[in-house]
Amino acid sequence: MLDAKPIDAAGPSPLPDIRAEAARKDRWSGIALVALMLAAAALVGQRVLDVATGPRPPGPGVPAPALAASTLDGEPLDLAGLTDRADKVVLVDFWATWCPPCVAAMPTLERLHRDYGDRGFAVLGVNQEPGQTERVRRFMERRGLSFPTLIDPGGLSRAWGVYTYPTSFLIGRDGMIREVYRGPASASRLRRDIEAALDPS
């Protein structure tokens, strides 16, 4: 008696082809992920190198570095003009529209700018998107932000030792740095420090 063999009407199983295709996709996904990680590491490494080879980040008790650039309206503005000539306490905030913590801090900065403006305080934004003036202007207009903002032409953040965003510096009327905030600071802390800078005992 001959052994009966099952007849496969559908032909060869497609499973090996499916598994091979899935393996190829996994391999390319892995390669793409590694490439992205290497690119991110290179960017971070370059940023760390820039900071390491640049000036030391200024801290409380030292003069604020020079800070001058054009505002969103194309007008020249410099920190020395606000502190030396206008006798203001200034919160210099380095920020970008692509930075979620920066964006989240904007309403607090605007309230501080308005609440203490008549007492000799100002917020000065330093945006990190050169060449995007109109985009930044629209961003501020949509959110009702009125404090002056400079566009960093490329070297201000390095001169100030800024490598994370937001980073803010509270500058006294004498042009000296009083406080440095790496990352968003609470509204209560900012108010306390601003009050102390406006009315030193």
Overview of the structural elements:
By secondary structure, the chain is an alpha/beta fold. The relative contact order is 0.16. A hairpin with a 5-residue loop joins strand 1 and strand 2. It folds into two domains: 38 residues; 131 residues, Glutaredoxin, CATH 3.40.30.10. The strands form two sheets. A five-stranded mixed beta sheet has the order 5-4-3-6-7, sandwiched between helices. Strands 1-2 form a two-stranded antiparallel ribbon.
Question: Quick summary of this structure?
Answer:
The chain has 201 residues and is of the alpha/beta class. Helix content is 44%, strand content 17%. The protein is elongated.
Intertermini distance: 111 Å
> Which descriptor suits the 3D outline?
elongated
If you average the pLDDT, what whole number results?
A: 84
Strand order of the largest sheet: 5-4-3-6-7
Provide the gyration radius in Å: 27 Å
CATH topology of the largest domain: Glutaredoxin
Helix and strand pattern: HEEHEHEHEHEEH
Number of domains: 2
CATH architecture descriptor of the largest domain: 3-Layer(aba) Sandwich
What class do helices, strands and sheet pairing give? alpha/beta
Major sheet, described briefly? 5 strands, mixed
Classify the helix fraction into a percent range: 40-55%
Total number of beta strands? 7
